[in-house]
Amino acid sequence: MDIVEQVRQNLKEALRYISDRMVGEIDVGIILGSGLGRLVDIVEDPITFPYGEIPHFPRSTTEGHMGNLVIGKLIDKRVAIMQGRFHHYEGYTSAGISFPIRVLKGLGIKTLIITCAAGGIRSDLKQGDIMAITDQINLMGTNPLIGPNDDEFGPRFVDMAEAYDGGLLATARAAAIQEGIDLKEGVYVGVLGPSYETPAEIRFLSTIADVVGMSMVPEVIVARHSGVSVLGLAVVTNTPDSKHKVSHDEVLVEAQKSSGRLIKLIVNVLEDI
Ligand code: HPA
Known about the structure:
It is a single chain. By secondary structure, the protein is an alpha/beta fold. It has helices at residues 3-19, 94-106, 166-179, 199-205, 217-225, 248-272, and strands at 28-32, 44-50, 68-74, 77-83, 111-120, 130-138, 184-190, 211-213, 229-238. The chain has one domain: Nucleoside phosphorylase domain (Rossmann fold). A five-stranded mixed beta barrel has the order 5-8-7-6-9. Hypoxanthine is lined by residues 117-119, 196-197, 212-214, 237-238, 246, 251.
Protein backbone atom coordinates (compact mmCIF):
# COMPACT_ATOMS: atom_id res chain seq x y z
CA MET A 1 0.00 0.00 0.00
CA ASP A 2 1.44 3.42 -0.87
CA ILE A 3 1.56 6.19 1.71
CA VAL A 4 -1.54 8.00 0.42
CA GLU A 5 -3.57 4.76 0.67
CA GLN A 6 -2.10 4.06 4.12
CA VAL A 7 -3.12 7.48 5.48
CA ARG A 8 -6.64 7.08 4.05
CA GLN A 9 -6.91 3.66 5.68
CA ASN A 10 -5.62 4.98 9.04
CA LEU A 11 -8.03 7.89 8.90
CA LYS A 12 -10.95 5.58 8.16
CA GLU A 13 -10.08 3.45 11.20
CA ALA A 14 -9.77 6.50 13.49
CA LEU A 15 -13.08 7.94 12.27
CA ARG A 16 -14.85 4.60 12.60
CA TYR A 17 -13.61 4.27 16.20
CA ILE A 18 -14.97 7.72 17.10
CA SER A 19 -18.21 7.47 15.09
CA ASP A 20 -19.08 4.12 16.71
CA ARG A 21 -19.18 5.92 20.07
CA MET A 22 -21.14 9.06 19.19
CA VAL A 23 -23.84 10.25 16.82
CA GLY A 24 -24.05 13.07 14.31
CA GLU A 25 -21.71 15.49 12.59
CA ILE A 26 -19.48 17.97 14.36
CA ASP A 27 -19.85 21.69 13.57
CA VAL A 28 -16.75 23.22 15.07
CA GLY A 29 -13.28 21.93 15.96
CA ILE A 30 -11.34 23.61 18.75
CA ILE A 31 -7.66 23.15 19.57
CA LEU A 32 -6.62 24.19 23.08
CA GLY A 33 -3.03 25.28 23.62
CA SER A 34 -0.69 25.20 26.62
CA GLY A 35 -2.53 25.86 29.88
CA LEU A 36 -5.84 26.47 28.08
CA GLY A 37 -7.45 23.05 28.49
CA ARG A 38 -10.30 24.01 30.85
CA LEU A 39 -12.86 24.82 28.17
CA VAL A 40 -13.77 21.13 28.22
CA ASP A 41 -15.26 21.58 31.74
CA ILE A 42 -18.30 23.36 30.30
CA VAL A 43 -18.97 20.93 27.46
CA GLU A 44 -22.40 19.28 27.77
CA ASP A 45 -22.67 15.49 27.46
CA PRO A 46 -18.95 15.11 26.86
CA ILE A 47 -17.43 11.95 25.45
CA THR A 48 -13.70 11.87 26.13
CA PHE A 49 -11.33 9.96 23.89
CA PRO A 50 -7.77 9.80 25.25
CA TYR A 51 -5.53 10.19 22.20
CA GLY A 52 -3.98 6.80 22.96
CA GLU A 53 -7.34 5.08 22.37
CA ILE A 54 -7.94 6.51 18.90
CA PRO A 55 -6.33 4.31 16.24
CA HIS A 56 -3.26 5.97 14.64
CA PHE A 57 -3.71 9.22 16.62
CA PRO A 58 -0.37 10.67 17.83
CA ARG A 59 0.28 11.06 21.59
CA SER A 60 0.87 14.38 23.33
CA THR A 61 4.24 14.67 25.08
CA THR A 62 4.26 18.30 26.26
CA GLU A 63 3.49 19.18 29.86
CA GLY A 64 0.28 21.22 30.08
CA HIS A 65 -1.18 19.35 27.12
CA MET A 66 -3.63 16.73 28.37
CA GLY A 67 -4.07 14.52 25.33
CA ASN A 68 -7.84 14.08 24.94
CA LEU A 69 -10.32 14.55 22.14
CA VAL A 70 -13.53 15.71 23.82
CA ILE A 71 -16.77 15.62 21.84
CA GLY A 72 -20.00 17.20 23.04
CA LYS A 73 -22.19 20.27 22.92
CA LEU A 74 -21.24 23.86 23.64
CA ILE A 75 -24.01 26.47 23.30
CA ASP A 76 -25.96 25.05 20.36
CA LYS A 77 -22.91 23.70 18.53
CA ARG A 78 -21.54 20.19 18.34
CA VAL A 79 -17.85 20.55 19.07
CA ALA A 80 -14.76 18.37 18.96
CA ILE A 81 -12.08 19.76 21.24
CA MET A 82 -8.44 18.75 21.09
CA GLN A 83 -7.20 19.16 24.64
CA GLY A 84 -3.52 19.12 23.79
CA ARG A 85 -1.76 19.40 20.46
CA PHE A 86 1.28 18.21 18.55
CA HIS A 87 4.33 20.28 17.74
CA HIS A 88 7.11 19.75 15.23
CA TYR A 89 9.64 20.17 18.08
CA GLU A 90 8.34 16.96 19.68
CA GLY A 91 9.66 15.16 16.63
CA TYR A 92 6.33 14.62 14.86
CA THR A 93 6.53 14.32 11.14
CA SER A 94 4.28 16.20 8.74
CA ALA A 95 1.94 13.22 8.75
CA GLY A 96 1.69 13.20 12.57
CA ILE A 97 0.84 16.88 12.71
CA SER A 98 -1.71 16.62 9.88
CA PHE A 99 -3.57 13.53 11.06
CA PRO A 100 -5.62 15.08 13.94
CA ILE A 101 -6.76 17.94 11.68
CA ARG A 102 -7.84 15.42 9.06
CA VAL A 103 -9.78 13.55 11.75
CA LEU A 104 -11.60 16.78 12.72
CA LYS A 105 -12.37 17.45 9.06
CA GLY A 106 -13.60 13.86 8.68
CA LEU A 107 -15.96 14.42 11.64
CA GLY A 108 -17.57 17.20 9.61
CA ILE A 109 -16.12 20.49 10.88
CA LYS A 110 -16.37 23.59 8.69
CA THR A 111 -14.75 25.87 11.27
CA LEU A 112 -11.66 25.43 13.43
CA ILE A 113 -10.88 27.64 16.42
CA ILE A 114 -7.20 27.36 17.30
CA THR A 115 -5.82 28.75 20.54
CA CYS A 116 -2.23 28.98 21.71
CA ALA A 117 0.17 30.61 24.10
CA ALA A 118 2.53 33.03 22.39
CA GLY A 119 5.33 35.41 23.15
CA GLY A 120 4.45 39.07 22.64
CA ILE A 121 6.86 41.00 20.43
CA ARG A 122 5.01 44.23 19.59
CA SER A 123 5.81 46.84 22.20
CA ASP A 124 2.21 47.56 23.30
CA LEU A 125 1.49 43.91 24.18
CA LYS A 126 1.24 42.85 27.81
CA GLN A 127 1.15 39.50 29.59
CA GLY A 128 -2.42 38.23 29.55
CA ASP A 129 -3.48 40.02 26.37
CA ILE A 130 -5.64 38.00 23.99
CA MET A 131 -4.88 38.45 20.29
CA ALA A 132 -6.93 37.47 17.27
CA ILE A 133 -4.46 36.34 14.63
CA THR A 134 -4.88 38.15 11.33
CA ASP A 135 -2.15 36.37 9.36
CA GLN A 136 0.87 34.16 9.83
CA ILE A 137 4.47 33.70 8.76
CA ASN A 138 5.95 30.21 8.58
CA LEU A 139 9.55 30.31 9.81
CA MET A 140 9.50 26.70 10.96
CA GLY A 141 11.61 25.53 8.06
CA THR A 142 9.12 22.79 7.37
CA ASN A 143 5.55 22.32 6.19
CA PRO A 144 2.94 19.74 7.24
CA LEU A 145 1.99 19.12 3.60
CA ILE A 146 5.44 17.84 2.65
CA GLY A 147 5.15 14.44 0.99
CA PRO A 148 2.77 12.96 -1.57
CA ASN A 149 -0.45 14.97 -1.85
CA ASP A 150 -3.82 13.27 -1.51
CA ASP A 151 -6.14 15.16 -3.86
CA GLU A 152 -9.10 13.85 -1.85
CA PHE A 153 -8.04 16.12 1.02
CA GLY A 154 -7.02 19.16 -1.01
CA PRO A 155 -4.83 20.52 -3.80
CA ARG A 156 -1.05 20.13 -4.03
CA PHE A 157 -0.53 23.90 -3.91
CA VAL A 158 -2.66 25.61 -1.29
CA ASP A 159 -3.83 29.20 -1.49
CA MET A 160 -3.07 30.99 1.80
CA ALA A 161 -4.41 34.46 0.93
CA GLU A 162 -6.97 34.17 3.74
CA ALA A 163 -5.28 31.85 6.23
CA TYR A 164 -7.49 33.29 8.98
CA ASP A 165 -11.10 33.83 8.00
CA GLY A 166 -12.21 37.48 7.77
CA GLY A 167 -15.79 36.68 8.80
CA LEU A 168 -14.68 34.79 11.90
CA LEU A 169 -12.34 37.64 12.78
CA ALA A 170 -15.28 40.08 12.60
CA THR A 171 -17.30 37.72 14.82
CA ALA A 172 -14.44 37.62 17.36
CA ARG A 173 -14.20 41.43 17.36
CA ALA A 174 -17.92 41.75 18.10
CA ALA A 175 -17.75 39.03 20.76
CA ALA A 176 -14.84 40.79 22.48
CA ILE A 177 -16.79 44.06 22.64
CA GLN A 178 -19.78 42.27 24.19
CA GLU A 179 -17.55 40.56 26.77
CA GLY A 180 -15.55 43.71 27.58
CA ILE A 181 -12.32 42.15 26.35
CA ASP A 182 -9.65 44.37 24.81
CA LEU A 183 -8.94 42.07 21.86
CA LYS A 184 -5.61 42.75 20.16
CA GLU A 185 -4.96 41.83 16.53
CA GLY A 186 -1.75 40.90 14.79
CA VAL A 187 0.50 38.58 12.85
CA TYR A 188 1.80 35.30 14.31
CA VAL A 189 5.20 34.03 13.34
CA GLY A 190 5.71 30.30 13.83
CA VAL A 191 9.18 29.08 14.78
CA LEU A 192 10.31 25.50 15.33
CA GLY A 193 11.51 25.78 18.95
CA PRO A 194 11.80 24.28 21.50
CA SER A 195 14.40 26.89 22.49
CA TYR A 196 12.94 30.33 23.10
CA GLU A 197 14.16 33.28 21.06
CA THR A 198 17.45 35.06 21.55
CA PRO A 199 17.37 38.88 21.85
CA ALA A 200 18.72 39.08 18.27
CA GLU A 201 15.95 36.78 17.04
CA ILE A 202 13.33 38.90 18.82
CA ARG A 203 14.77 42.02 17.21
CA PHE A 204 14.57 40.34 13.81
CA LEU A 205 11.06 38.93 14.40
CA SER A 206 9.79 42.33 15.59
CA THR A 207 10.27 43.61 12.04
CA ILE A 208 7.86 41.00 10.61
CA ALA A 209 5.34 39.95 13.28
CA ASP A 210 3.52 40.81 16.52
CA VAL A 211 3.64 37.51 18.41
CA VAL A 212 5.80 34.38 18.18
CA GLY A 213 5.00 30.76 18.94
CA MET A 214 5.81 27.15 18.16
CA SER A 215 2.38 25.89 17.09
CA MET A 216 -0.60 27.21 15.10
CA VAL A 217 1.10 27.56 11.69
CA PRO A 218 1.10 23.88 10.57
CA GLU A 219 -2.45 23.33 11.86
CA VAL A 220 -3.70 26.32 9.90
CA ILE A 221 -1.97 25.10 6.74
CA VAL A 222 -3.58 21.64 7.01
CA ALA A 223 -6.99 23.15 7.80
CA ARG A 224 -6.83 25.49 4.79
CA HIS A 225 -5.66 22.60 2.59
CA SER A 226 -9.04 20.96 3.16
CA GLY A 227 -11.09 24.16 3.04
CA VAL A 228 -11.75 24.56 6.77
CA SER A 229 -12.12 28.19 7.98
CA VAL A 230 -9.88 29.20 10.86
CA LEU A 231 -10.11 31.57 13.81
CA GLY A 232 -6.78 31.92 15.65
CA LEU A 233 -6.63 33.23 19.23
CA ALA A 234 -3.34 33.65 21.09
CA VAL A 235 -2.76 34.44 24.75
CA VAL A 236 0.33 36.57 25.28
CA THR A 237 2.13 34.73 28.09
CA ASN A 238 5.43 36.58 28.07
CA THR A 239 7.04 39.67 26.60
CA PRO A 240 10.73 40.39 25.88
CA ASP A 241 12.52 41.54 29.02
CA SER A 242 16.25 41.19 29.41
CA LYS A 243 15.99 40.96 33.21
CA HIS A 244 13.57 38.07 33.12
CA LYS A 245 14.01 34.59 31.67
CA VAL A 246 11.00 32.95 29.97
CA SER A 247 10.11 29.42 31.09
CA HIS A 248 7.46 26.89 30.13
CA ASP A 249 6.12 27.03 33.71
CA GLU A 250 5.52 30.77 33.38
CA VAL A 251 3.85 30.23 30.00
CA LEU A 252 1.47 27.68 31.59
CA VAL A 253 0.65 29.88 34.61
CA GLU A 254 0.00 32.96 32.49
CA ALA A 255 -2.11 31.01 29.98
CA GLN A 256 -4.20 29.56 32.83
CA LYS A 257 -4.76 33.07 34.24
CA SER A 258 -6.20 34.21 30.91
CA SER A 259 -8.16 31.07 30.17
CA GLY A 260 -11.37 32.38 31.82
CA ARG A 261 -11.49 35.37 29.47
CA LEU A 262 -10.55 33.24 26.48
CA ILE A 263 -13.35 30.77 27.27
CA LYS A 264 -15.87 33.63 27.52
CA LEU A 265 -14.71 34.89 24.13
CA ILE A 266 -14.95 31.45 22.49
CA VAL A 267 -18.43 30.81 23.93
CA ASN A 268 -19.62 34.17 22.60
CA VAL A 269 -18.11 33.42 19.17
CA LEU A 270 -19.86 30.03 19.10
CA GLU A 271 -23.21 31.75 19.63
CA ASP A 272 -22.68 33.64 16.38
CA ILE A 273 -21.36 31.00 13.99
N1 HPA B 1 8.39 32.07 22.06
C1 HPA B 1 7.92 31.02 21.37
N2 HPA B 1 6.84 30.33 21.74
C2 HPA B 1 6.17 30.75 22.84
C3 HPA B 1 6.59 31.85 23.58
C4 HPA B 1 7.78 32.55 23.17
O1 HPA B 1 8.21 33.53 23.79
N3 HPA B 1 5.71 32.00 24.61
C5 HPA B 1 4.78 31.03 24.47
N4 HPA B 1 5.06 30.26 23.40
